[in-house]
């Protein structure tokens, strides 16, 4: 397969040096387009493989804090009490660090679990640069999806520009500078232990494509931290879930009612004895009628309780937790063995120095902050892509409730057009005005980025702007998604999405 290479308007324009953070689908597809448009690209991936959330790692991820309801700066757990200087190399033994497994601390495993399947059809889950092979089914498992990302990386030349095992620690632009400074740390295993190499790099532009699924959201429920402390193996976030076997014969309380809770409930069917699915009654909850027969929908949890005179010496570890979960409607659950928190994730970019705050509220967000204390939205982005104060910092993969592969591919090409000079952004004042109008229309919070009912208008709006510029300069217009995608998307919208929200089992393929 040959990937067409496009060039910038002026043959004398030097290629801009662009850093891409993350080798999931948003990073790989962005890098693919950037290379096509003649840009000089380096892609940083902290793990040893491309694939992002579709890369299965049997090791569970690092346990988050309890509660973990606001983003926090990234702690350097590898070298406690010592900040490496730029271009410094340090060798330390496997036993060094913060008492954990050094590779896991450097690159925490993602949320992919055994049996994870796609929940949207492959007909709308693709890059414009690579079609699925003829005869590919509409739904399949994570290994096939990861292979698709690897194939895209290899065929487009992205594989040659990826630096694996390299974590971006900091992204900053000093006042008066026209370059972004990236500080990275690369981990290598040696006979003695591990070698960590810290470097400082300069780039003209940065594309943040690190995804949504880094920092688990752990709600601040009364008594939950105590349960986690006393019964650490029985309380987990869905990011740490790997397989249903450990829940054999148990009564499992799943907190959350979106897609991951629904999927895990179906995985537990045939293994667990009973499932309680707790919901707050959210806008995007999966219908109760689609749960397996062993799952009982229950209300929001108010507290987790333990008796004052609890004596764990007499507790049989095969038994349920010797405490109760009280619901807000007054019901008490007294037979829970394990709790899975399918409560979603915080938006966080801990490497964006000065752009993330764990104390500033979303209402207090100024014109430069990206992440505020709630961790529910990314502020100050034009079209969810370009950082308004400095559009040489771009984001791909911020929207959700969308056909991720296709939409992020679309965003990646838009970024490539802008950074290569083939499309021009409005003035900062106009971008700010558009952003303000969107805030007034959609409000603040996580739903700000939802494209559940707006994906096609979102793409059409951007395509109109990009191709107006193309027409003025006489260059090839951007095609965007094709007619087959539109037909498949329309079918998907009127079947699966409606089925999930309204409980029509005839429209759901599980």
UniProtKB/TrEMBL annotation:
Signal peptide: none annotated. InterPro entries: FAD/NAD-bd_sf, Flavin_mOase, Flavin_mOase-like, FMO-like. One of its GO terms (molecular function) is NADP binding. Keywords: FAD, Flavoprotein, NADP, Oxidoreductase. PANTHER family: DIMETHYLANILINE MONOOXYGENASE. Belongs to the FMO family. This is FAD dependent oxidoreductase domain-containing protein. It comes from Helicocarpus griseus UAMH5409.
